[in-house]
Fold this sequence. Notes:
Layout: E1 3-4, E2 10-17, E3 20-27, E4 34-35, E5 42-48, E6 54-60, E7 63-71, E8 74-77, H1 83-86, E9 94-100, E10 106-112, E11 123-129, H2 143-150, E12 154-158, H3 168-172, H4 181-195, E13 199-209, H5 211-220, E14 228-232, H6 238-241, H7 248-255, H8 262-267, H9 270-273, E15 282-287, H10 295-308, E16 312-317, H11 327-345
Parallel strand pairs: 11-12, 11-13, 13-14, 14-15, 15-16
Antiparallel strand pairs: 1-2, 2-3, 3-4, 5-6, 6-7, 7-8, 9-10, 10-12
Amino acid sequence: QPRWSADGRFLYFALEEDRSVQLARVPASGGEVERLTARGQVVREIAIAPGGHVAVLVTNPAQPAEVFALEGKTLRPLSRQNDALMAQLSLGAVADLDVQVPDGTRVGALTVTPPDFRAGKRYPTLLYIHGGPQAQDQHEFEPMAQVFAANGYLVVQANYRGSTGRGYAYSLTLRSDWGHYEVTDLLASIDAVIADGRADPGRLGILGWSYGGMLTNYTIASDTRFKAAASGAGISNMLAGYGTDQYISDYELELGMPWKSIEDYLRVSYPFFHADRIRTPVLFMCGEKDFNVPLINSEQMYQALRSIGVETQLVIYPGEFHGISTPSYLQDRAQRYLDWFGKRLKSP
Length: 348
């Protein structure tokens, strides 16, 4: 979101850095990057008035986005749109979790604990995976994670390799190698909260949307520890995606042409072609008109699990595209998540 300063001396922009997004600027003539806001929060929008005043939309784990004026390096609140709502809510505590995977890579994650969290008690745990993969879980108000925490779950959000906020090399790790390092990182994050005593290893769930749905499929095809999964708008058979979705450049640049690189396509499509490895009950969801990751991909995985006798369900939202936007459908999806995981992860 680059924005010129009113006098043309600086270029302002949002800077992603390991779970945070800061407002930063650089001189128009070149030079060092200057960070203008603190870590531990997320700058979502930037506006600069002709007179030089700077306004930003900022959120943190305990506060939905509000408008602030930037005065030097201080944020002065201009809106309090959510104060009345937030005063009624008890939120789960959000904390950083840094995980060392076996090959030495550090993975930055977040955990959200139930509002009534008690040390020494193990909780049913959800691995909640972001999409993209060009994105990051970050220090912002995340409604669905708070809904899960309010219903008694420990939530883990891991910035697996391929995520942004850690530099180009970190994002590039999964080039042509989907469903490999990301799964290692996700499982290491779950291992970490089991080891620290917060997660119940017998009550683990996993879910995500888009690339998060893909990684849900990859992970349950690699490890059977999860008792329930919800895969939204994901794909597991890249041959079905070629020519039917919007990722032709990715397929051809990273995997090649299917008729020349069939082994590479099969390698990154292992949740479908090795669906018999899956033991986890899966709730599949997708928008009827999704042209980003079309419905056929969820239908294929649903049918595969039906055919091998694994418990599964398919929910199609009429008229919806890749991101579900109709309020009643958003409420329906949230309730389906709670019902699906509650039946399989909560104690009787």
